[in-house]
Amino acid sequence: MDRKTRSNIDGRQARATLVAAFLALLVFAAPAGAEAAEEDSTATAAASPAPTASKSGGARLLDARVKPKRAYSFGLKQPRFWITLGASGPTDIRIDIVRAKSGLLQRSITVDDVKPRTATAVGWDGRSSSGAPVRGKLRFVVRGPSGKPLRFSKRYLRAAGGKKKKKGKKRTQFGFFDFIFPVRGKHSYGDGIGAPRGDHTHQGQDISARCGTKLVAAQGGTVTVNAYQASGAGFYLVIDTIGGTDMVYMHMAYRSAIPVGTVVRTGQTIGSVGTTGSSSGCHLHFEMWTPPGWYSGGTFANPSPYLRAWDKYS
């Protein structure tokens, strides 16, 4: 083989070797590049979670209200705060329950990742952060991730009846109480403790109202008596309340449908105003007895100041 031919062969072999080396480099480099890209993607995801501490900085209140506006311990419904946010993403909020007038904080409830433009309900058990009962006139404040109160949207303020913040606050005000006034309609006060009744004196408070006016349990408890007395009380009901006091409802229009032994809730309907038994005119005769209860060792207490206090807020 002459020198020129050998030189050509050697050249071709050298080029083939270079091409093979280049292809090998591409094969091994591709997975390494993909791995690097994966690592970069993971790092980016870790560094940019779903919106947080904006979470959302520009959030505002599209709606904020409480239902019911008057709630009662051991009642039919407990307070629930309904929140609708205008925000760019899920938002952490804090609900502060405060005194209506003084603004004194009673309890804080945190809720994470509240979805925007979705009505969210948050319940409350009527207790402070220390576990003590909270009663009276209250309101709630919704705070965002920064801890500052969220702004009311213009739409919310219009729905609340004005453009000022105080109009918006009205929707966030509510009351939580232990007792409710038992006569749920127009009424007036009649004879109280000590009024003459022939051979005895009056042991309760009369509340006059139209016959058929709804009666509710002033405080929940267990029904211990459901009876009729022609010469006196007419149809009457006795409830041994959760507070230990017996409450008696007399002259009801008909026998209550609630059997003895039934547990009733504060504010639950128990009957209606009537004039059965020894009665002149439609009214409720209401009595309160200390433990151990009605004609079982307790003594009657004057219910008038309690009734008037309950009447003011309920």
Verbal overview:
This protein has 314 residues and is of the alpha+beta class. The protein has three domains: 1-48; 60-177, Immunoglobulins (Immunoglobulin-like, Sandwich), CATH 2.60.40; 187-313, Glucose Permease (Domain IIA) (Distorted Sandwich), CATH 2.70.70. 22% of the residues lie in helices and 35% in strands. It is built from four helices and 21 strands. The chain has helices at residues 3-47, 154-160, 165-170, 304-313; strands at residues 60-67, 70-72, 80-86, 91-99, 105-114, 120-123, 136-143, 151-152, 173-177, 187-189, 196-197, 200-201, 205-209, 214-216, 221-229, 234-241, 246-252, 263-264, 269-272, 283-289, 300-301. The strands form five sheets. Strands 10, 13, 15, 16, 17, 18, 20 and 21 form an eight-stranded antiparallel sheet that branches. Strands 2-9-7-4-5 form a five-stranded mixed sheet, with no helix packed on it. Strand 11 and strand 12 form a beta hairpin. It is elongated and about 75 Å long. The termini are far apart. Residues 1-9 and 14-54 have low confidence and may be disordered.
Helix and strand arrangement:
Blueprint: H1 3-47, E1 60-67, E2 70-72, E3 80-86, E4 91-99, E5 105-114, E6 120-123, E7 136-143, E8 151-152, H2 154-160, H3 165-170, E9 173-177, E10 187-189, E11 196-197, E12 200-201, E13 205-209, E14 214-216, E15 221-229, E16 234-241, E17 246-252, E18 263-264, E19 269-272, E20 283-289, E21 300-301, H4 304-313
Parallel strand pairs: 1-8, 2-9
Antiparallel strand pairs: 1-3, 3-6, 4-5, 4-7, 7-9, 10-13, 11-12, 13-20, 14-19, 15-16, 15-18, 16-17, 17-20, 20-21
